[in-house]
């Protein structure tokens, strides 16, 4: 159990760093939109509580990245792949999981909860977020495979 928790936390930490570096340094450095997940998390907090709280927004961003999203891959994404599409390469399933994370973040959290336009209006940030979430999922899945001994 302790190894599983550590594996998830390490995978989530590395994936979050990859997501943040891509979204806040590489993408804007190349002239594309920059990601700002903490202000989005703060808007969610503000919608739910009536007041934003940046420390909580940072905590929400890191809790989702370090624990929540990799836990979803570990408990749902990878088991579904193994059961229903075992011939699908892990990286293809992880990329699909990343698209699911993108839908969750930009539609459920940003639109349905925070009240922003669906998928942030399909502007430049939408597509940077798609790449960022797919990158996150690929890194998290790869780290979990490496730490747990992937067999396919």
Percent strand: under 5%
Instruction: Indicate the percent of residues in helices.
Output: over 70%
The oligomeric state is single chain
Distance between the termini: 23 Å
Low-confidence stretches: none
The best one-word shape is globular
- Helix tally? 5
Q: Which class best fits the helix and strand makeup?
A: mainly alpha
Q: Would you report the number of β strands?
A: 0
Number of domains: 1
Please, what is the average pLDDT? Answer: 96
How big is the Rg? 16 Å
Describe the largest sheet: none
* Element order: H for helix, E for strand: HHHHH
Transmembrane segments: 59-76, 88-113, 119-144
Keywords: Membrane, Transmembrane, Transmembrane helix
Protein name: DUF1440 domain-containing protein
Short structural description:
By secondary structure, the chain is mainly alpha-helical.
Topology:
Blueprint: H1 2-29, H2 37-49, H3 54-84, H4 90-113, H5 124-148
Helix pairs in contact: 1-3, 1-5, 2-3, 3-4, 3-5, 4-5
Descriptive account of the structure:
The protein is mainly alpha-helical and 152 residues long. The protein contains five helices and no strands. It has helices spanning 2-29, 37-49, 54-84, 90-113, 124-148. Helix 1 crosses helix 3, helix 3 packs across helix 5 (124-148) and helix 4 (90-113) crosses helix 5. The two termini are 23 Å apart. The model has no long low-confidence stretch (mean pLDDT 96).
């Amino acid at each position: 159990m302790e190894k599983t928790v550590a594996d998830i936390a390490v995978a989530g930490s590395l994936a979050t760093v990859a997501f943040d570096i891509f979204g806040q340094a590489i993408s804007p450095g190349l002239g594309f939109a920059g990601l700002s997940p903490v202000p989005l998390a703060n808007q969610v907090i503000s919608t739910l509580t009536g007041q934003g709280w940046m420390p909580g927004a940072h905590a929400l961003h890191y809790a989702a990245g370090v624990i929540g999203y990799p836990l979803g891959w570990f408990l749902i994404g990878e088991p579904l792949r193994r059961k229903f599409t075992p011939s699908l390469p892990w990286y293809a399933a992880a990329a699909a999981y990343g698209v699911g994370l993108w839908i969750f973040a930009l539609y459920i959290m940003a639109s349905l909860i925070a009240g922003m336009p669906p998928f942030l209006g399909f502007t430049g940030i939408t597509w940077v977020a798609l790449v960022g979430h797919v990158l996150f999922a690929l890194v998290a899945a790869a780290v979990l495979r490496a730490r747990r001994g992937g067999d396919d």
